Amino acid sequence: MKNIVLFGIQGSGKGTQGKIIAEKYGYTIFETGGELRKLIASESELGNKIKAIVEAGNLVDTSVIMEVIENFLKNTPAETPVLFDGLPRKMDQKIAFDALMEKEKKDFAGVLIEISREEAIQRLTARRMCKNCKEIYPAFYADDTCEKCGGELEMRQDDSNLDAIENRLDAYMNETRPVIDGYIEEGKMIEINGEQGIEEVTADLISELESKL
Fold it and tell me: Sign (positive/negative) of CA torsion 185, 98, 90, 87?
């Protein structure tokens, strides 16, 4: 299987689908925030570099993110495909990411879980998160406790403010959508209708991956 770059507007369920695909096909997931935290905890040279940036209150720039990806790829067995969750997010990241993947001789395809802005708002304002393990549950999940750890579910703070949600969606449309359109134009994007049930989205995704990758 090719490496995958997974895209989707907030609330599209790409995190859920990414985990399903990774488990089914043996992908290892690269998630930027998690990888940064892991490196900081490792106290490696790169980890200390990132820690200094974060502690200074600065954002980790594209060049450092690419260092993190390169480090991740070097520490991942060559035969293990990688699923990149939501990266690249901006055009400068796309340019740098494409160059890095070409240098590392890593072929990849984009996968877009597509839902409308209206659907995204509806889902984001109704989803809940476990207080303990931070697992996210969609609106249709009826229980008040986490099925994984039994923790209490609550609305995420950044999902309770409609203005904050609108700002996040605006950032996606203005910054990430051009990246997606670029991969569509290059013929490197698989598009999936995300406005279905989880099982139906998974079935469509598996069908597309097995026929095209």
Answer: positive
**CATH homologous superfamily of domain 3-115+176-212?**
P-loop containing nucleotide triphosphate hydrolases (3.40.50.300)
Whether pTM > 0.70 for this model: the answer is yes
- The DSSP call for residue 135 is -
User: Do 14 and 85 form a contact (C-beta atoms < 8 A)?
Assistant: yes
Question: What are the mean pLDDT values of the chain's consecutive 10-residue runs (213 residues total)?
Answer: 94 93 96 92 95 93 95 94 94 97 96 96 89 86 92 81 90 96 97 95 96 86
User: 5, 108 in Cβ contact below 8 A?
Assistant: yes
Both tokens assigned to 72: 């991740």
Distance CA 196, CA 213 (A): 23
Nearest CA-CA partner of 173 in 5, 10, 4: 10
